[in-house]
Amino acid sequence: MPQRVNVNPEMLRWACERSGLGVQAFTKKLPRLDRWLEGDGQPTLKQLETLARVTHTPVGYLFLRKPPEELVPIPDFRTVGARGAERPSPDLLDTIYLCQQRQEWYRNHARMSGEEPRDFVGVSRVGDEVVEAAERIRERLGFSIEERGELPTWTAALRRFVEQAEEAGVLVMINGVVGTNNHRPLDVQEFRGFALADSFAPLVFINGKDTKSAQMFTLAHELAHLWAGESALSDVEPVSAPSHQVEIWCNQVAAELLVPLEAMKREHDPEGDLREEIDRLARHFKVSTLVIIRRMHDVGGLTRDEMWAAYRAELEWLKEKNVKKSNGGGDFHLTQAVRVSRRFARALVVSTFEGRSSFTEAFRLLGIKKTETLRQFGRRLGVEV
Known about the structure:
Layout (H helix, E strand, L loop, with lengths): L8 H10 L14 H5 L7 H11 L27 H4 L3 H23 L17 H12 L3 H5 L4 H15 L2 E5 L1 E2 L2 E5 L7 E4 L6 E5 L4 H16 L4 E3 L10 H14 L2 H7 L6 H12 L3 H10 L5 H22 L6 H9 L1 H12 L5 H8 L4 H10 L5
Helix pairs in contact: 6-10, 8-9, 9-10, 12-13, 13-14, 16-18
């Protein structure tokens, strides 16, 4: 007879609730779960490992006498009252932990490779004049209105924005699931992105479940955190009203970076049709319509109530458009390069095939399971392996 494991029933209940799904979501896989919670019997080690796996809980936690206090490991600047601000989900925690592991690997790689520290990390301070702070980022990235104006769409401008950040030394990771697990989607209501400040491996993570239009603002916002030298977890939107001073400042810098206020004043026609103006200015500045709506308010073209009404209507339309475009699997190699950062992926692939990193480590950090897949992935990244 399989040996039973003595565990506190409250730890089993905690694991189910921690998952965000509750006890009933797991009774099909573990039919005796209700009885264990009542103290009628104990699970076997295999059953306990199954519960840990399906609830995404470290199995060691289940042997504790009481639930641990799980805190977000970086400064949490999400809006007070947000659902995710009360208790971080396993999906959020696992995503941050994975990004921290990638950052640690790249930090060590950069030092051993003789790379110089990124001189932009911490060059600004929260409270610096917004226009000057935005200009520092713009100059370092080469993020000019003129260059964006030559691109065909704002989505092309977003891709170029990511490229410019990576060329400057920022690891930009955009993913809508935990690692490569499509059964663990990230909740955009819990967080939109985070920044991990580091002089050798500055990192920005963007929740890929958010609309493409919102992702552009998130990237700009998290870059402001890096320039201020601060790690942060955020849930901001272009028109949100953060309760933290640092988030207010980063929002202002992000808006100024994407659409300079003086340029907006010159281009905006307050007498024009609202719909036509939003679309025209979005095409001109090559940013999302959501950012344009916020800047219309900043230059006095919309009252706060008008801004919110226009923003909500635009957001709903963009969400519907995003859902329609999301059907289909896509190219695994291209998707994974976006998920883990092309800069990070190239460095790890080269290091692995040169024998400086283990294949086991590369598989874990890149979400790849086979050597040949890793080889093909490297070739798609332009690496000779």
